[in-house]
C-alpha cells in the first residue's frame, strides 16, 4: 500500500473534482494513473466527486470485464478508507446505477447537483446539457436517457451490450470529427440560465475537454465563474480542489510524490 500524502490543510477536509477519465481496456496507462491518484491524493474525510465519463463506455452494473472489476475494487478501497465518493453519469457511462454505487460505497448524484464549494453556491454537472447548440446530440441524449430505452438495453446480453457500446463509441468519434468545435462547446446563455435557475454563482463541469475558467455575468450583476475540468490522459491529468476557502487546480502525473499546483 502506498502511503497517503500529507494534506495541504490538516484543519479542513477537501472536496476534489475530476471527470472525463474515459477508462477503457485499451488505455491501461490512464487506468494506472487513476489508481495512483486514488492511492495518493484523497485522504480520509475528503470528498471525491467524479462528474461523468469515468468510463469510455459502461454496459451495465453487471459488467464482469477485467476493467470493470479492477475499477470497482479501487473505488471500494477509497470509500473504505473513509473518503466520501460521489458520481454523476456522463454521456459515455449513462447506464451506471444503484448496483454499482452499492458495490463501491458511492452516492449517485443527479445532474445538475448543487452544493457549497469554497463558500459559494455551486452547480456540479457533467456538462453535456450545456451544449445546446449541438441539436443532434441533445436529441440523442433524450433517447439514451429514456428509462424505457435503458430498461430494454439492460435486458440484452453482456455480449450484445458490448457490441452496442463499441458501435456507439465509433459513431461518437466520427461525429466529433465532423462537427465544428464551437457547436460542441457550452452555450453561454444556457450556462447563465442554469446558474440563475439554481441560484448558483459557480459551475464545475467536464465533457467539453476544454479546461479553462470562464466568467459569466448574471442578470443581478453578479459575476459567476465556470470551471471546466480536464480530460485524463496516459501521462497527465488534473483535478480541482476546494480546501474550504478557495478552488485550486492540481496537475497529476504518474509516480509523482505530490500533485503539482498551478
How would you describe this structure to a colleague?
The protein is an alpha/beta fold and 262 residues long. It has a single domain, classed as Metallo-dependent phosphatases (Purple Acid Phosphatase, chain A, domain 2). Helix content is 32%, strand content 22%. It is built from seven helices and twelve strands. The strands form two sheets. It has a seven-stranded mixed beta sheet. Helix 1 (28-40) runs parallel beside helix 2. The radius of gyration is 18 Å and the shape is globular. It starts with 14 loop residues before the first strand and ends with a strand. Mean pLDDT is 90; it is low at 1-9 and 257-262.
What key phrases describe this protein's structure?
about 260 residues; alpha/beta; Purple Acid Phosphatase, chain A, domain 2; five-stranded mixed β-sheet; 12 strands; about 30% helix; about 20% strand; globular
Question: What spatial order of strands do you see in the largest sheet?
Answer: 4-3-2-1-10-11-12
The coarse overall form would be globular
Gyration radius, rounded? 18 Å
Q: Please, what is the CATH homologous superfamily?
A: Metallo-dependent phosphatases
- Give the distance, in angstroms, between the N- and C-terminal Cα atoms: 28 Å
How would you spell out the order of helices and strands? EHEHEHEEEHHHHEEEEEE
At the fold tier of CATH, the topology name is Purple Acid Phosphatase, chain A, domain 2
| Fraction of residues in β-strands | 15-25%
How many domains make up the coordinates? 1
How many beta-strand elements? 12
Amino acid at each position: 500500500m502506498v502511503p497517503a500524502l500529507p494534506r495541504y490543510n490538516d484543519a479542513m477536509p477537501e472536496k476534489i473534482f475530476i471527470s472525463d477519465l474515459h477508462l477503457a481496456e485499451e488505455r491501461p496507462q490512464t487506468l494506472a494513473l487513476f489508481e495512483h491518484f486514488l492511492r495518493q491524493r484523497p485522504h480520509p474525510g475528503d470528498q471525491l466527486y467524479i462528474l461523468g465519463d469515468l468510463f469510455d463506455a459502461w454496459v451495465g452494473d453487471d459488467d464482469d470485464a477485467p476493467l470493470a472489476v479492477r475499477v470497482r475494487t479501487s473505488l471500494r478501497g477509497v470509500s473504505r478508507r473513509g473518503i466520501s465518493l460521489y458520481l454523476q453519469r456522463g454521456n459515455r457511462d449513462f447506464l451506471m446505477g444503484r448496483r454499482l454505487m452499492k458495490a463501491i460505497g458511492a452516492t449517485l448524484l443527479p445532474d445538475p447537483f448543487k452544493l457549497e464549494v469554497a463558500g459559494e453556491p455551486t452547480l456540479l454537472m457533467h456538462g453535456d446539457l450545456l451544449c445546446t447548440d449541438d441539436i443532434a446530440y441533445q436529441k440523442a441524449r433524450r433517447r439514451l436517457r429514456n428509462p424505457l430505452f435503458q430498461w430494454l438495453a439492460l435486458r440484452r446480453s453482456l455480449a450484445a451490450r458490448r457490441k452496442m457500446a463499441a458501435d456507439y463509441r465509433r459513431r461518437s468519434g466520427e461525429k466529433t470529427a465532423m462537427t465544428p468545435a464551437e457547436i460542441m462547446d457550452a452555450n453561454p446563455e444556457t450556462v447563465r440560465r442554469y446558474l440563475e435557475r439554481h441560484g448558483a454563482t459557480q459551475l464545475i463541469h467536464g465533457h467539453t475537454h476544454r479546461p479553462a475558467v470562464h466568467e459569466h455575468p448574471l442578470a443581478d450583476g453578479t459575476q459567476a465563474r465556470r470551471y471546466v475540468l480536464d480530460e485524463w490522459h496516459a501521462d497527465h491529468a488534473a483535478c480541482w480542489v476546494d480546501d474550504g476557502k478557495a478552488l485550486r487546480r492540481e496537475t497529476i502525473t504518474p509516480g509523482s510524490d505530490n500533485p503539482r499546483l498551478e
